[in-house]
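User: Hey, quick favor. My workstation is busy. Could you predict this chain's structure for me?
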Amino acid sequence: MNLHPAPPRSQRGSTLVLVALLLPVVLGLMAMAVDLARVVLVKHELRRAAEAGALAGANGLLTNSAPDWTSAAQRARTTVFANRADGNLLQAADVRYGYWNLATSGLNSSGSFVEGTSRPLGGSWAPALKVTVARDSSANGLTNGGPLALFLAPVFGTLLQTTSSSAIAMQSAPGYALPGALFPTAINQCMFNLYWNATTGTPIPVSPSSPYYNPSNPYELRIGSVNQYGTCNSGQWTLFSTIDNSVPAVRNLLTNGNPTGLSVGSPTYIDTGTKTTLYSSVIYPKTYLVPVVANVSKGFQPIVAFAPFRVTNSVGGSTKAIFGQFVPLSEFPGGTEPGGSTYYGTPAPPALVQ
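Assistant: No problem, here it is.
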């Protein structure tokens, strides 16, 4: 017995008409989904290549002289060309030189990159590169394969899709020292005014007329109490965020460095006491990262910069001084983060800013 009679012919015809009407819509949605996913993937690949290129190019911009923009651009392009997008090796990138405004309140801010090889006047600026990688109808975009040829979107009459991605990376002086990165001696900024050439990023030899001149090493400085060596030849033990100046506490800082991270502008405690026994605990020869302050008076003083100092000797007794010299291009991997505007010889790792 047939309990389910067949639908009338008119109903079957209506279903076929409905399917015929909906099929293009369904195909269109499929086209959008497939092609949108592909476009998003390619844009992500272009972004990754641009970021890698910008970081590679920015690494080395902060040197003893003016940035070598040509070499930076070559490093950026070489890195971009090692990446793929849509399955193909990239072959072109647009690289722009410029400076990033360190006063920018946050990343991904507009108007903080000024194109050009001359540092803008006023404010704090760091050399930077902007790298753009494209798949479009521009010269560079065409070299990379041109606009994406979409697979299914032609159902809607769309044949090509352009996409591109840009990244900006800069290199600056350190703006932050990670825990354990700092040696517990603060140097008076006045010393850098005398013995550091801010134009060339190199140390200045001590004048032969100075009572501390060493003819065998004219760059040798001695860091000691302001009471003993004068304002511009002085440095003091610093306890960072603590005020415990006991010998065991300071020895712990000599071994382990700053217990917490410190930024430019952070206060660090200056201890004007000179405990003779501590000088025998200093390991040398070794290059340390030290905080720089504008005032070595006892108490909390703001950090104005971070600088490398190569310790060559440490003498207690009546001398009570650490001997050494300023050194250019000293890096401390894993010890600093960017953001500082005063360069005293140590560049921070390059950073993406946009």
